[in-house]
Amino acid sequence: LPTATVQFNDCHLRRIMRSLATMLALLPCAVAFTTGPFRLPTAARHTTSPATCTSSLALRSAQSARLGLRMVAAASATLPSADALKTSQLAQLASMTVLSIDTGDLDIVEQFAATGYITDATTNPLFVSQAGLSGDPRYVAFVEEAITYAKNKMCNKDGCDVVADAIALAMDRLAVNLGKNILSLGIKGYVSTEVDPRLSFDMEESLVRARRIIQMYEDEGIKRERVLIKLAATWEGIAAAEVLEKEGITCNLTLVFGTLQAKACAQRKVRLISPFPGRILDWHKLDKKFDVCPPNEDQGVIACAEMYGYFRKYEHDTICMPASWRPSRGPGFELDEIRELAGTDRMTIPPNLLTQLANCQDPLPRKLEAKAAATACTAPPLGGGRVEEKEFRFLLNQDGCTTTKMAEGIRAFVSDTEKLEEAIRNKFME
Asked: Is the pTM of this model over 0.70?
C-alpha cells in the first residue's frame, strides 16, 4: 500500500498486539504477553523516584513498534466513511461529551463540522496569527478588511490620531473575521475569541476590548450567545469575566492549571473554563522526574476530574472543557487523556487527535459521570463559598504548577500576538 494512505495509531497497535498474543498462545511453550501497562505496587507508584510512572517492558516494546510504524504513516489522515464514523470513538465520545475543534483552519473546520460530531470551535492568538500571516487569499482578505475597518473607524485623510489603537482594533477585527467565518461553516454552538493576552492583568481594558469584540459580532448579525470571550484565568481575568457574564457576555477562562482557578471561576458564574491537562502533566513530569504514567494517574487528568466533580457537588453551572493534550504513556498513546476524561462536559481537540478518534473502532467507556463525580468530591467550598483576591493570590503563589504554566502560557500567547501586531502594523502603513 502507498504509505500516504496508511495511518497507525494505538487502536491499530492494540489489534496487532491482540493478534500476536493469540498466535503466541498456540506455541508449545506457554507465553505470557500483554499490551497493557504494568501496574507497580501502590507504594511504589507514589514514590518520587524516576521510576514512579513507568510502564512494563511490553508497553515499551509496543511503543517502539508503534514509533516505527508511525515513521511510514500518513502525514495527514483522512476521515473514514460515514458508516464507519457512526461506530468510531469520535461518535462515541460525542455521545457523552460536547466536542469543539481547536483550529483556525477553515477547511478543516468545515470537514469536521460536516460529520455532525463537532459542535463548537476555539481560536487563540496563535491561530489568528497563523491566519493573518498565512498568505492564503481568504485570510489575506480577512486582514485587508480588518485594516480597512480600523482605518474607517479611527483614522481620516490626515492619518490616525493614535496608530497603536487603530492597529489594536484591526487585530480584534481580524479575530472576529476568523470567528465569523468559522461559524458560517456548520459550527452550531460556540466560537471562542480571545482578548489580547497582554491585557491579562488589566481588568478594565479587558472589559473594553471584550465589549468591542462582542459589538463587532453583533454588527455582523451574530448573537452574543454564540461567542465565548476568552480571557486568561488571572485574578483580573476572572474579575472581568464576572462583570461580562452579568451583561450576557459569556466567557471562556483559559490557561487553567489548577483547581483554585477553576473554583474561583465557578463561584463567579463564568460560563466555561479550559483546563490544560497536558501542560499540567508536563509540569509534574519535570517536577517529579518521570516520563510516562497510566492515564488514571496523570495529574492533568486528576485535576480536570476534580474540577468537574467540584462543579457537580456544589451545583455550579460552569462548563469544564479540557484542552491541550499529552500522551500519558508516551508517544503512540496520544488519546490517553481524552479517553480518561470521556464524559466531561466538553472538550476542545485539535484535528490530528479528532482524526485518530474517527479512525478508531474500539469501545470507549465513559469515565466521568455527574452523580458519581459529585459524590467522590470531598473538597470544601473554596473561601467558604467565595474566594477573595488576597486569598486567591496567596493560594496561587503556593501552587507551583499553576504559577509556572500560566506564566508560560501568557508569554507564548503574547509572543504570537506581537508577531501578528508587527505584520498588521507593516500592512497598516502601506
From this structure: yes
